[in-house]
């Protein structure tokens, strides 16, 4: 309170600008409003002040509040509301409340005593506190499944409070009197509706208790209007949702299209099952047997795989699933998954597509379709995964990110507007107050801008500033007794001996090597924690115990010594020291409580040891600080997300809780609730959390089984859509925060500096020792020269290779230092020097005097250097690379080294050069040089490169043929063996030629050449392995595919860019890995040894606890075989298994099984019991939030930061495309222009002209679109097993559509003539008509089996893509598809790389897992037997679906001696460790590639959006300008009449668009006019360009370029001479009008003799006066605009 009083004393003692609202104020306001309405030409540009919004606190600039100003009506201080019939009321906390002053619609007068009383109640802080407490109490009691007895009384009390609140608001605000009335706030509508419904249902005789419970859940949303921050976030999200409208419509369109395609392809296919078909009844027809309903309904007649709930699906295609012997594939029974998974009608097909879009359990539907329809339909899933899971997701991310940036920019602008007012206030306060107090006020005022700029959602206001000021004052001012106590007891300066001892300890404990030792101890302590496992021997346990004691002892000694050295007062002032002391305290406490039973969990405090790394690891500390600041800035968004989750949980509980209990037998055979239901609050919360994690389809099936699908589906859609919007917004906000963090923003602690100092000292000592050793062995000057020479060769030979990519950041930093201030002025070509060009890296480095290669791109080499000196170095390195051969010392090598010498070794270089000239004359040297020149010509020849590339592709493709059937194909096997030898010899020959051409050093300096050398070694090893029958050597053949990387430039570019964006993020990745380590160690403490269970061998199920309680009872059971006490495949018995389990949780594959095991776990050697430990779910929830969501935001933020940094260094060009693709990019931009095609000339024939006008009219286009949509609707109404009458009707409807499309084709062909086939869209329509007619007529001859009716409908449906046609369909679709089209070159490069990665892993999978037993995730569709099946598996893993099942199959028990027919390989086992490395590495690599793909598309969207907003003009803008000009100047005169200028300006596209009314703006341009009041094209273009660019520095340059270009294209423009301007012409016209009317008025006054004349004269005077006012107003407006 003291601080608050001091702060208020700093404000002005007198109230400023606050005037009581009286009747005179209201009358004056009404008069002012009436006056404003009469003034037609006055415009108001005022906007509401952001610091005076409702809910904010009144700024201190308005002075201190007197008691008479509190809770009474005051005149509105916001100038915007001065004339809006409003007044304000302030409470004691200076909070602003705004009310309407009008007395209409049941609104009392502002001066009514009743309204004044209710206003005082409404604005009082305790009123809002009362409502908030009531809502919170209501929320708490909503979570109860079994309510207490006093609940009805409590509910009635709460209902009374809510009713009282509504009455108070109705009286205080009025029913409907403006935006600040009761009904002016949408939240009041919701509150009133819920209260009214509750009143009606509570006292109604009808039994509507369930409806009442559901309606009461809306009370939870009342928290939002009670919190101003939450309310503002909701407004932001609604604004974001408006921006997403186009993307949502596009998503619905494509969902519908793909649903219709799925209906036509898979309708009824999922009912195909394998039906038992006994061999003894072969004479009985299939129709007779399947026609028996009772036979089909018996589920035991279907074939089931072991452990599967549903029957095996099959198909009639050769690539579909086949039935085992004795079974026939028939269409019988119900659809899988309780009948909910099918494409039998549009509704279920749409649900299936939505499931695929959200990637929920896609592998099951994927397998079902491939089993029932064939593997060829994998293309359908690939297209859907790319379109929805990638592009549409990128589109949503881009739009949300753009909305976030706009809100951030808006918050910054608001802060800038608010800042000057408070700065002025602080200046005024400075004159009357003491200097110290004034400085404090200025500091607090200046903080406003920094706080506002750091938070986009929560713009800080004066209340926040005041609270912070109070907090600081309270911290600064401590009681005097505390200082005396601290000086007496916490500062130890007692005796000189003690001071000397303290100084001695300080020297020791502050030494850098002590900090290095402590850092090593922290790392060792983490290793000790990671060594915990189960089961653990006594020796290991004893060792870990001793290690823990030692660590605690070291930490204790450190704390004691630091306290001695720094005094307790200085020690505990440092935050890290307090943390260290807490660890020591907990460690010592653990020693005393170690033997107490039940407190073993207390040992988990050791996890705090890991956080000690923050003291020595700056990145860890910075990221934690950034995370903390980001979450504090986004606290309202996080609170809103938790509010929504709570609301969804309670709503699900009230909607479905009772249904789960009553209908549990429909989803459980033993009529017991499963782990996932909504019968109680906690399980409902878990279900909602699972839905938000993307796992919703299985719980939806259960919900539809126990409740109505009409309530389940809307509830799930609400949770998915709104929840994902909130999560995406929060995720992108965090990504933006982490992408902008800088490592240098925080100061390093002394420990981190000491650690670096200690490492430098060690390095210095090592270098000193090595230098001493080298001095004894060789001559120092010679070594120095060689070192300099080697350094020069390394730096300049590898300047344009990939060898420096391992330390890309250092390389780039060196480039930055060399470029200096010229970095920002780099052109696009110059900026490419940051990425090594492959054309330069393969340049043959022969001396310039020897080179016969004339097509070297010297310009490209020069562009690789920053200045002239570096260009010389590049030339020198190019001349020396080929001459660097590490063979026996010869004269040629001596000559080569002369060219390698840098210029600073001039003397030695001159001597050796003379020797080189002598050697050059020798015959032997000439022969050697000619041989090398010949080799250079060969390896640089384009035909040679094409040949090597072709051989590389053939050798790589040959690997795909070596599947499990290779032994049965003898001819192919022999051909492959010979091909391997030929490929090996070719690559060896190529390597030798390059050795001769480049030399050893140049060859092995290039990373791509090293890769080629490694591949040659692989070829040789595989040949040796075949000859010696060594499988390990043969299995490395998959590495041969890596050679493709070095042969194709597109892959090289992507690999380089990936390394540049990811390598600098290694530090952040290690922080994320450390977070996972914490959770893994925590999992070991919680679950180690707890996942074991006793399994019944007969049923495969777990024994109940009533039969088996622990391990000993399980082992005592005697059956025909021993009862296994088995451990779960994925567990937390050690840190490695914990990491693997957490990876499955992070990818949401198999995480439900892991979570169920944890929930059922009891203790070590105890049989698990159902939900014995239900709250262990919190561990996994915390991991998903803290271990997945936040670290993922960190890592992606770091990658985005690196991407932007390198993109800026390249001048804004994309870092993932080649130079040729940049030209393609520009071509795509032109292609995406709406009117890029040439217009078709109108025919001269009247009839053809009439048809031409008809087919080119907008009405005809709309009718065509309507017909296309109607044809899609006809497909939507279809269903499986529909009646014959319906099929006949649909057949004739399709026939009618074909006739209509044929008529359209004839009309367009008649009017367009031969131009019809010059447009691609017309050719597409022609093909649709041809195929449709063929599809109708062909079945009549060949039958419906070869040409199904669905084919015709699919062909007709393909016309729906006309909706996306530029210029024809909605513009929003065109703008949303533009980023995809412009990203096609980048996506092509990424696709090639990810296909290569999939290819390599598919080959490796074939070599290692081809014979794994088919169970779990390995089946007839997904396996590693062939290349195609392996690619199917890897496609699943790429979308993070089903890889846990494949890994489980590799883990499962197997038979190592099983005989595999057709091959010599025995066993069906897989190596678990190889499987773990295989899947984990592939997941990481594919994730890395896919994340960068997302970033590229999102950034492309940002570029387009920023370009539209920025004041820039492109070539497309000028092209569109001239396209519009052609419509206004069809005769190509280059002039238009001045009267058409307004229409022309309104017809342009942004940013040149000038919407009407625009005459004032056009007059202000003062355009020159020629004879006939005509304006030239160039003058208009220059004026409009100047209007867009404004005061940009580039404006003059752009205008000169436009004018010079136009002059060259139109030289006759020089003869054009303007005679006047538009402004002068307007002034002349206005002047003439004034003169005419003045003369007319004068004549009228002279001749006036009667009343009518007098009245006429008076009327003219009025007209004249009005026109005079208009003229002067227009003149002033024009002058101000000019």
Quick gist of this model?
With 1682 residues, the protein is mainly alpha-helical.
Secondary-structure blueprint of this entry?
Layout: H1 2-10, H2 23-38, E1 74-75, E2 86-90, E3 96-100, H3 113-123, H4 125-142, H5 151-173, H6 186-202, H7 209-216, H8 223-226, H9 228-243, H10 245-266, E4 272-276, H11 286-290, H12 293-297, E5 327-331, H13 346-357, H14 362-373, H15 378-432, H16 435-454, H17 462-476, H18 480-490, H19 496-509, H20 512-530, H21 538-571, H22 575-593, H23 608-611, H24 613-616, H25 618-633, H26 635-662, H27 681-692, H28 697-706, H29 709-739, H30 750-777, H31 780-797, H32 808-819, H33 828-831, H34 838-841, H35 858-863, H36 868-881, H37 891-900, H38 906-921, H39 923-940, H40 942-959, H41 970-998, H42 1000-1005, H43 1007-1028, H44 1031-1034, H45 1043-1047, H46 1049-1062, H47 1066-1087, E6 1093-1094, H48 1111-1116, E7 1125-1126, H49 1135-1146, H50 1151-1160, H51 1177-1209, H52 1219-1231, H53 1246-1255, H54 1258-1276, H55 1284-1312, H56 1320-1337, H57 1339-1342, H58 1349-1357, H59 1371-1382, H60 1384-1409, H61 1427-1438, H62 1443-1451, H63 1472-1509, H64 1515-1528, E8 1535-1537, H65 1541-1547, H66 1559-1565, E9 1568-1569, E10 1574-1576, H67 1577-1589, H68 1595-1609, E11 1620-1621, H69 1622-1646, ...
Antiparallel strand pairs: 1-2, 2-3, 4-5, 6-7, 8-10, 9-11
Helix pairs in contact: 1-17, 3-5, 4-5, 5-6, 6-7, 9-15, 9-26, 10-13, 10-58, 15-16, 15-29, 15-63, 16-17, 19-21, 20-21, 20-30, 21-22, 25-29, 26-27, 26-29, 28-29, 29-51, 36-37, 37-38, 39-41, 40-41, 41-43, 46-51, 46-60, 47-49, 47-51, 53-55, 54-55, 55-56, 55-58, 56-58, 59-63, 60-61, 60-63, 62-63, ...
């Amino acid at each position: 309170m003291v601080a608050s009083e001091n702060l208020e004393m700093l404000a002005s003692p007198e109230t400023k600008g606050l005037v009581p609202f009286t009747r005179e104020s209201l009358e004056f306001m009404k008069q002012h409003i009436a006056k404003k309405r009469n003034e037609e030409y006055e415009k108001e540009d005022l906007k509401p002040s952001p610091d005076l919004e409702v809910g904010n606190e009144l700024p201190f600039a308005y002075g201190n509040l007197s008691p008479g100003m509190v809770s009474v009506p005051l005149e509105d201080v916001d100038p915007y509301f001065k004339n809006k019939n409003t007044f304000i009321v302030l409470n004691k906390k200076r909070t602003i409340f705004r009310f309407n002053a009008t007395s209409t619609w049941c609104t009392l007068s502002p001066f009514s005593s009743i309204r004044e009383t209710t206003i005082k109640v409404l604005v009082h802080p305790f009123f809002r506190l009362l409502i908030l407490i009531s809502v919170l109490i209501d929320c708490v009691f909503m979570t109860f499944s079994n309510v207490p007895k006093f609940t009805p009384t409590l509910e009635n009390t709460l209902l009374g409070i809510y009713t009282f609140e509504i009455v108070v608001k109705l009286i205080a605000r009025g029913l409907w009197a403006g935006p600040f009335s009761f009904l002016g706030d949408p939240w009041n509508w919701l509150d009133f509706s819920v209260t009214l419904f509750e009143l009606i249902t509570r006292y109604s005789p009808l039994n509507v208790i369930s409806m009442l419970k559901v309606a009461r859940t809306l009370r939870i949303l009342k928290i939002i209007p009670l919190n101003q921050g939450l309310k503002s976030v909701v407004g932001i999200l609604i604004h974001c949702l408006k921006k997403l409208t186009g993307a949502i419509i596009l998503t619905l369109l494509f969902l519908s299209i793909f649903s219709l395609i799925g209906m036509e392809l898979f309708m009824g296919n999922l009912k195909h099952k394998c039906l038992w078909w006994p061999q003894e009844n072969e004479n009985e027809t299939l129709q007779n047997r399947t026609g028996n309903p009772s036979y089909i309904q018996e589920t035991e007649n279907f074939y089931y795989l072991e452990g599967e709930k549903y029957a095996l699906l099959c198909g009639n295609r050769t690539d579909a699933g086949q039935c085992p012997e004795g079974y026939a594939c028939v269409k019988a029974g119900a659809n899988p998954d309780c009948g909910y998974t099918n494409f039998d009608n549009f509704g279920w097909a749409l649900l299936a597509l939505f499931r695929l879009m959200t990637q929920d359990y896609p592998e099951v539907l994927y397998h079902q379709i491939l089993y029932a329809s064939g593997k060829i339909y994998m293309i359908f899933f690939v297209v859907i995964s790319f379109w929805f899971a990638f592009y549409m997701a990128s589109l949503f991310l881009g739009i949300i990110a753009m909305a976030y940036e706009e809100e951030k920019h808006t918050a910054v602008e608001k802060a800038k507007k608010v800042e000057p007012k408070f700065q002025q206030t602080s200046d005024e306060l400075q004159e009357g107050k003491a200097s110290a107090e004034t400085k404090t006020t200025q500091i607090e005022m200046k903080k406003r801008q920094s706080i506002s700029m750091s938070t986009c959602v929560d713009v800080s206001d004066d209340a926040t500033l005041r609270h912070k000021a109070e907090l600081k004052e309270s911290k600064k001012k401590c009681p005097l007794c505390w200082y005396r106590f601290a000086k007496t007891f916490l500062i130890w300066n007692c005796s000189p001996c003690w001071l000397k001892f303290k100084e001695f300890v300080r020297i020791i404990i502050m030494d850098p090597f002590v900090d290095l030792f402590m850092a090593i101890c922290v790392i060792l302590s983490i290793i000790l924690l990671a060594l915990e496992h189960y089961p653990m021997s006594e020796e290991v346990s004893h060792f870990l115990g001793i290690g823990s004691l030692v660590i605690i002892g070291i930490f204790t000694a450190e704390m004691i010594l630091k306290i001695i050295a720094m005094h307790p007062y200085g020690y505990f002032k440092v935050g890290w020291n307090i943390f260290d002391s807490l660890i020591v305290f907990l460690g010592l406490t653990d020693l005393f409580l170690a033997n107490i039973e039940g407190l073993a969990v207390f040992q988990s405090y050791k996890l705090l040891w890991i956080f000690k790394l923050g003291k020595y690891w700056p990145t860890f500390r910075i990221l934690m600080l950034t995370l903390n600041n980001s979450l504090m800035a986004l606290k309202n968004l996080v609170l809103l997300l938790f509010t929504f989750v709570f609301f969804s949980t309670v709503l699900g509980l009230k909607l479905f809780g009772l249904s789960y209990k009553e209908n549990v037998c429909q989803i459980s055979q033993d009529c017991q609730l499963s782990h996932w239901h909504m019968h109680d609050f906690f399980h409902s919360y878990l279900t909602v959390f699972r839905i938000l994690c993307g796992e919703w389809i299985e719980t939806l099936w259960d919900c539809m089984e126990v409740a109505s699908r009409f309530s389940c589906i809307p509830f799930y859609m609400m949770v998915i859509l709104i929840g994902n919007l909130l999560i995406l917004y929060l995720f992108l906000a965090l990504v933006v925060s982490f992408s902008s963090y800088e490592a240098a923003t925080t100061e390093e602690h002394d420990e981190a500096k000491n650690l670096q100092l200690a490492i430098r000292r060690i390095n210095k000592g090592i270098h000193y020792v090595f230098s001493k050793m080298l001095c004894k062995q060789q001559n120092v000057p010679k070594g120095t020269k060689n070192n300099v020479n080697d350094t020069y060769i390394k730096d300049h030979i590898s300047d344009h290779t990939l060898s420096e990519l391992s330390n890309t950041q250092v390389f780039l930093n060196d480039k930055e230092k060399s470029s200096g201030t010229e970095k920002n002025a780099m052109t696009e070509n110059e900026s490419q020097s940051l990425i090594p060009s492959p054309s330069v890296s393969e340049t043959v480095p022969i001396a310039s005097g020897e080179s016969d290669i004339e097509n070297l791109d010297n310009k490209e080499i020069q562009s690789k250097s920053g200045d002239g000196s570096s260009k010389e170095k590049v030339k020198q390195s190019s001349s020396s690379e080929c001459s660097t051969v590490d063979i026996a010392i010869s004269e040629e090598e001596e000559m080569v080294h002369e060219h390698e010498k840098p210029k600073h070794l001039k003397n030695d270089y001159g001597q050796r050069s003379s020797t080189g000239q002598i050697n050059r004359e020798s015959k032997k040297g000439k022969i050697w040089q000619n041989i090398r020149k010949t080799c250079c010509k060969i390896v640089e020849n384009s035909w040679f490169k094409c040949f090597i590339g072709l051989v590389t592709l053939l050798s790589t493709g040959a690997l795909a043929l070596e599947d499990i059937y290779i032994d049965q194909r003898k001819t192919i096997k022999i051909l492959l063996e010979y091909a391997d030898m030929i490929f090996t010899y070719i690559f060896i020959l190529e390597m030798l030629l390059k050795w001769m051409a480049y030399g050893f050093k140049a060859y092995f300096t290039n990373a791509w050449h090293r890769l080629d050398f490694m591949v040659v070694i692989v070829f040789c090893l595989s040949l040796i392995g075949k000859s010696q029958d060594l499988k390990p050597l043969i299995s490395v053949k998959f590495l041969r595919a890596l050679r493709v990387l070095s042969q194709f430039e597109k892959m090289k570019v992507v690999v380089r860019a990936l390394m540049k964006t990811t390598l600098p993020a290694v530090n952040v990745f290690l922080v994320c890995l450390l977070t996972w380590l914490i959770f893994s160690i925590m999992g070991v403490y919680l679950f180690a040894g707890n996942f074991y269970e006793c399994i019944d061998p007969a049923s495969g199920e777990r024994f109940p606890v009533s039969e088996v309680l622990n391990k000993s009872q399980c082992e005592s059971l005697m059956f025909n075989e021993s009862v296994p006490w088995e451990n779960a495949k994925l567990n937390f018995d050690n840190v490695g298994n914990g990491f693997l389990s957490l990876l499955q949780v992070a990818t949401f594959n198999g995480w439900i099984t892991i979570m169920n095991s944890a929930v059922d776990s009891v203790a070590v050697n105890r049989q698990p019991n159902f939900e014995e430990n239900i709250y262990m779910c919190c561990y996994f929830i915390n991991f998903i939030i803290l271990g997945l969501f936040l670290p993922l935001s960190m890592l992606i933020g770091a990658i985005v930061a690196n991407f932007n940094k390198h993109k800026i260094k390249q001048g804004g060009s994309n870092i993932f495309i080649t130079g040729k693709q940049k030209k393609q990019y520009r071509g795509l931009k032109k292609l995406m222009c709406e009117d890029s095609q040439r217009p078709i000339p109108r025919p001269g024939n009247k009839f053809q002209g009439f048809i031409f006008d008809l087919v080119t009219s907008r009405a005809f286009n709309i009718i065509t679109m309507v017909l296309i949509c109607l044809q899609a609707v006809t497909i939507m109404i279809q269903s499986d097993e529909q009646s014959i009458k319906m099929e006949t009707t649909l057949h004739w409807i399709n026939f009618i559509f074909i006739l209509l499309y044929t008529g359209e084709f004839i009309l367009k062909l008649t009017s367009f003539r031969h131009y019809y086939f010059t447009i691609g869209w017309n050719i597409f329509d022609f093909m649709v008509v041809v195929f449709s007619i063929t599809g109708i007529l062909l079945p009549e001859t060949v039958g419906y089996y070869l040409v199904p009716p669905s084919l015709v409908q699919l062909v007709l449906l393909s016309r729906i893509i006309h909706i996306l046609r530029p210029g024809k369909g909605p513009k929003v679709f065109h703008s949303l598809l533009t980023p995809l089209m412009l990203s096609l070159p980048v996506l092509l490069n990424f696709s090639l790389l990810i296909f290569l990665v999939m290819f390599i892993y598919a080959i490796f999978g074939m070599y290692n897992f081809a014979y794994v037993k088919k169970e779990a995730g390995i089946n007839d569709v997904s396996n590693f037997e062939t290349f195609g099946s392996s690619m199917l598996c890897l496609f699943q893993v790429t979308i993070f679906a089903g890889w846990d099942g494949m890994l489980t199959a590799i883990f499962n028990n197997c038979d190592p001696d099983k005989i595999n027919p057709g091959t010599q390989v025995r066993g069906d086992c897989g190596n678990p460790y190889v499987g773990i490395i295989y899947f984990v590495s592939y997941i990481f690599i594919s994730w890395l590639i896919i994340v960068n793909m997302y970033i590229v598309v999102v950034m492309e969207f940002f570029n387009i959006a920023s370009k539209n907003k920025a004041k820039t003009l492109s070539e497309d803008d000028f092209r569109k300008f001239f396209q519009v000009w052609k419509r206004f100047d069809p005769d190509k005169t280059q002039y238009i009449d001045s009267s058409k200028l307004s229409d022309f300006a309104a017809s342009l596209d942004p940013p040149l668009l000038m919407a009407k009314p625009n005459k004032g703006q056009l007059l202000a341009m003062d355009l020159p006019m020629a004879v006939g009041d005509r304006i030239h094209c160039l003058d208009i273009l220059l004026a409009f360009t100047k209007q867009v660019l404004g005061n940009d520095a580039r404006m003059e340059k752009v205008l000169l370029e436009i004018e010079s270009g136009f002059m060259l294209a139109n030289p006759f423009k020089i003869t054009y001479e303007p005679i006047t301007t538009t402004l002068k012409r307007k002034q002349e016209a206005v002047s003439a009008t004034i003169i005419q009317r003045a003369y007319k008025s004068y004549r009228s006054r002279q001749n006036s003799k009667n009343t009518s004349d007098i009245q006429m004269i008076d009327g003219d005077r009025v007209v004249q006066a009005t026109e005079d006012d208009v003229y002067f107003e227009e003149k002033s407006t024009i002058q101000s605009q000019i």
